[in-house]
Specification:
Elements lengths: L1 E6 L9 E4 L15 E4 L2 E8 L2 E4 L2 H64 L1 E2 L6 E3 L2 E4 L6 E4 L2 E4 L5 E3 L4 E7 L9 E10 L2 E13 L6 E2 L4 E5 L9 E8 L2 E3 L5 E2 L1
Parallel strand pairs: 6-19
Antiparallel strand pairs: 1-2, 1-3, 3-4, 4-5, 7-10, 8-9, 10-17, 11-16, 12-13, 12-15, 13-14, 14-16, 14-17, 17-18
Length: 255
C-alpha cells in the first residue's frame, strides 16, 4: 500500500511522492532525508539519527529541559560545595588564630600571676635613707638605759614620704605621743606570710595620711617622716611583729 505525502510548510495539497506504507512489523519509512512529512492519517514530525527515524514530540522536549535543569542544579550544588569549603577553611583559620591569641593571653596571664605572687611575697623599703640603728639591745639615747630596740631606725629628712612595706589593713593610726613615746604612728596587719601573721609599725611620724580599717597597697603613702614622741631627730622607727612578737624587719625588707 502507498500513502501520499506532502512537505510540511508547502501546503496540504502539495504532493511530493508516493511512499510505501510500513509493513505489518512497523518498519520505518525510507524517507530519512526528509525533516518533516505528512501522511494521510495525520502529521508526524521525524528527525534523522543515522538511518533511524526518531519521533520528535513533546516528550523529547521535556527530556531535554529536564537534562538542562539537572545540569544547572548540579552546577549550583558544585558552586555551593565550593563556597562551603571556602567558608570551612575560613572558620578553621579564624579558630586557629583564636587559639593562638588565647595561648598568648594565657602566657601573659601566667606572667602577671607570677609577678603578682612575687610582689605579694616582697617587702619594700619604707622611706629614703639608710639604717642608723638596727634591731637588738642597745643603750637608749634618751633614757640612757640598756633595753631592746624593737625595730630599725631609718634615717630621713623630716617631711619625706613613708610608705607601706607591704599591702595590708591599717589597725592603728594615732596622731599623738601617748603610745609609749611612739609619737604619731601607724600599724598595719599584713596577714599570713610564710606561715606567720605579720604586722608592721611606723613610729615618730610627722603626719598620718591613713585611717583605721583602710586597706593599703605595697608602696602606698602612709604619712611623712617626723620626730614626734621620744625621738632625738627626724627618722622612721620601723617595727615588725611576727605572730605578735617583735622581730628584725631587715629579715623581710629589700632595698
Amino acid at each position: 500500500m502507498v500513502a501520499s505525502v506532502g512537505v510540511v510548510g508547502l501546503g496540504a495539497a502539495t504532493s511530493v511522492a508516493a511512499v510505501p506504507r510500513p509493513d505489518a512489523v512497523g518498519a520505518p519509512l525510507p524517507v530519512a532525508e526528509l525533516r518533516g512529512v505528512q501522511t494521510s492519517r495525520g502529521e508526524t514530525r521525524v528527525t534523522r539519527q543515522g538511518d533511524a527515524m526518531l519521533p520528535e514530540g513533546p516528550a523529547v522536549g521535556d527530556a531535554r529541559a529536564a537534562r538542562k535543569a539537572v545540569a544547572e542544579r548540579q552546577a549550583e550544588l558544585e558552586a555551593t560545595a565550593e563556597a562551603i569549603d571556602r567558608e570551612t577553611q575560613r572558620l578553621s583559620d579564624v579558630a586557629a588564630q583564636q587559639r593562638q591569641l588565647a595561648a598568648r593571653e594565657a602566657e601573659r596571664e601566667a606572667e602577671r600571676a607570677k609577678a603578682a605572687e612575687a610582689a605579694s611575697k616582697a617587702f619594700v623599703w619604707p622611706t629614703a635613707g639608710g639604717m642608723s640603728s638596727g634591731f637588738g639591745y642597745r643603750v637608749h639615747p634618751i633614757l640612757k638605759t640598756r633595753k631592746l630596740h624593737n625595730g630599725a631606725d631609718i634615717g630621713g629628712a623630716c617631711g619625706q614620704p613613708i610608705v607601706a612595706v607591704r599591702a595590708g589593713v591599717v589597725t592603728r593610726a594615732e596622731r599623738s605621743g601617748s603610745n609609749g613615746g611612739a609619737g604619731h604612728n601607724v600599724r598595719i596587719d599584713h596577714g599570713p606570710v610564710g606561715g606567720a601573721e605579720l604586722e608592721t609599725a611606723y613610729l615618730h611620724m610627722g603626719d598620718v595620711a591613713v585611717k583605721v580599717g583602710q586597706r593599703v597597697e605595697t608602696g602606698q603613702r602612709l604619712g611623712t617622716v617626723g620626730s614626734t614622741g621620744l625621738s632625738t631627730a627626724c627618722h622612721l622607727h620601723l617595727s615588725l611583729y611576727k605572730d605578735g612578737a617583735g622581730s628584725d624587719p631587715l629579715a623581710y625588707l629589700t632595698k
